[in-house]
Each structure stands twice: as C-alpha cells, then as structure tokens.
Amino acid sequence: MPQHDDACTLLDEDHNQVARLFEQYKAAHDGAHQKLLARQIIQELRVHMKIEEEIFYPTFEQATGEAGLRQEGEHEHQEARELIAKLQKDPLDAKLMLELEDAILHHVNDERETMFLKARKTKSLNLVDLAVQIEARKSELTAGQPA
C-alpha cells in the first residue's frame, strides 16, 4: 500500500468505485449486464459498510467523541440496506437503483464534508495505521469473491 494512503482516502476510493458502477448500470441496456452490475454494487456496498461499522466509525468516535456522526452514518447504512434488500428481489428496477444511488451519494457527501475532515484534523487518530487495518479487513471480506 502506498505511504500516502490514509483511511479516508481508501474509503473515498470505495465511494468512487461505487459511483462508477452506478454510472455503468445506468448506461447498460442489457438486463443480464444490469443484473451483474447490481450484484457488484451490492457487494461493494456491503463490504464498505461493514468496514466502516467495524473499524472506521468506532475508532473515529473514540478519537473525536463524535457519537452523533457515527450514529448518523450507521442510520444511513441501515437505509441503504433496506434499499439493497428490495433491489436484490428486482435488480432491474431502475427507480429503486436511483433511490439507492441518491442515498449513497448523500451519505458520501456527509462523510466527505464532516467526518473525513474532522478525522484528518484529529491528531490522536492515526489514519495511516487505520488504513492498514481497513485494507486487511477488506481482503478478508472479499477473499474468494469474483473481481
């Protein structure tokens, strides 16, 4: 892993990857391709949310005392999980996929504008060490998954 990567950068790379997948889904006109992209989006989001909830959020809250930001993030994850559950039943529902995309983009903006900025200003939060933990957990969660 490059030295310059910190936990916020890694998490934001996940955000950008999912945003690209949403764009590919919207551009795809073949149902089979859309289903494949929907599965990829769901998998990426599940891994990302698990990492945030297991590693980033607790560490962030401990270092900053910002329980409210953690709770807000977890609440937004729950909303995404509800949309994901519906989408799994009908991966070709473009309206539902758009709802999920909107929810995720709102969540991403919240993290970028508040949580990540605060994390980077918190001296007691070692974001490079946290990135190593995140990478290791992501490898565990994605082991055996198709790329």
Rounded to an integer, what's the Rg over CA atoms?
Answer: 16 Å
Report the span from N to C terminus. 19 Å
- State the secondary-structure class: mainly alpha
Instruction: Give the percentage of residues in beta strands.
Output: under 5%
Low-confidence stretches: none
* The CATH topology: Four Helix Bundle (Hemerythrin (Met), subunit A)
Envelope shape: globular
Helix content: over 70%
- Name the CATH architecture: Up-down Bundle
The CATH first-level class comes to Mainly Alpha
Could you give a short account of the major beta sheet? none
Total E-strand runs? 0
- Could you report the average pLDDT, rounded to the nearest whole number? 94
Number of domains: 1
SS summary, helix count: 5
Structural overview:
With 147 residues, the chain is mainly α. The chain has a single domain, classed as Up-down Bundle (Four Helix Bundle (Hemerythrin (Met), subunit A)), CATH 1.20.120. 83% of the residues lie in helices and 0% in strands. The protein contains 5 helices and no strands. Helix 1 packs antiparallel against helix 4, helix 1 packs across helix 5 and helix 2 packs antiparallel against helix 3. The mean pLDDT is 94.
Give a brief description:
With 147 residues, the protein is mainly alpha-helical.
What's the SSE blueprint?
Layout: H1 7-27, H2 31-64, H3 67-89, H4 94-121, H5 127-142
